Each structure stands twice: as structure tokens, then as C-alpha cells.
Amino acid sequence: MIWTMPPKDSHIAFTRWQVRTALHRRQLPADLVYDAELIMAELATNALKHTVTPEIYCALQLQRQAIRVSVTDHGAAQAPALTTPVPAAQWPPATGWGLHVVEALATQWGTQSVGRGRRYTWAELHHHCPGTP
């Protein structure tokens, strides 16, 4: 399943909904659905905040042993990387936690340049998904 997302904060909720709806249809465990939804939101938010892109391509792949969520964006000068987050006690509110959330929830994740200024960032959650190829 692939969809495009305009680079607007308001579309993160739609992206979460896409993942949640697709995985609920497969009757997957609620905690797995929530983790996949949260990871996709974090990847999409990173693309939104750290690139200059006309649209973000989002994808959800269901495989027998894994769920893969990914985003492809344009204009990422450097690869996404774990950083030192801003503490919650500081104002404005805490930032920099997104990839730490992905790291904690995903079985594995990564990023690669896919040419012409595009970057592909993905994360997988390993789980047995009945009825998938």
C-alpha cells in the first residue's frame, strides 16, 4: 500500500489512520498496530521537519514475518540519525525523540539515498502476519 502525503502537519493524522486501518483489517494485535502507526508517524514527521519536499511518499508492506513502514522524501541533505533529544523540562516542548522511539519499537530500521535527492527511510516490526505472502 502506497500513498502520498503533502508536507503539512495536519496530514500526519491521516498517515496514522492509513496504517491503523490496513492493519486492523488484518486483525493484527492492537499493540503491534499501535507500534506500526507510531513508527510511521515518526518517520513522516521527520521527513516533514527535516526536508524540503513537495510530497512525502508513504508505504506499508505486510509480509509473513514482518510489517515494513517507510517514507521517501526529497531534499534530505543528510541521513536521519539518532541525536541528543531536547529535555522535556525545556521550552519549547521536547524534540529530537522521534528516531529514539523508532529505535525502541522497531526490530530494525534504516535509511538510504535512492537518487535524485530522494531518501528512503524504513522500519520493520517482526511478527507473524497470517494470510500474507
UniProtKB/TrEMBL annotation:
Question: GO molecular function terms here?
Answer: protein serine/threonine kinase activity
Q: Which SUPFAM superfamilies match?
A: ATPase domain of HSP90 chaperone/DNA topoisomerase II/histidine kinase
Please list every transmembrane segment annotated in the UniProt record, as residue ranges. Answer: none
Q: Which ranges carry the Histidine kinase/HSP90-like ATPase domain?
A: 8-109
Superkingdom field: Bacteria
Q: In the UniProt record, does the keyword Transferase occur?
A: yes
* Phosphoprotein in keyword set: no
InterPro entries reported in the protein's UniProt record: Anti-sigma-factor_SerPK, HATPase_C_sf, HATPase_dom
**Keywords assigned by UniProt, alphabetized:** Kinase, Serine/threonine-protein kinase, Transferase
Q: Which Gene3D superfamilies match?
A: Histidine kinase-like ATPase, C-terminal domain
Instruction: Write down what this protein is called.
Output: Anti-sigma regulatory factor (Ser/Thr protein kinase)
Q: What is the lineage of its organism?
A: Bacteria, Bacillati, Actinomycetota, Actinomycetes, Kitasatosporales
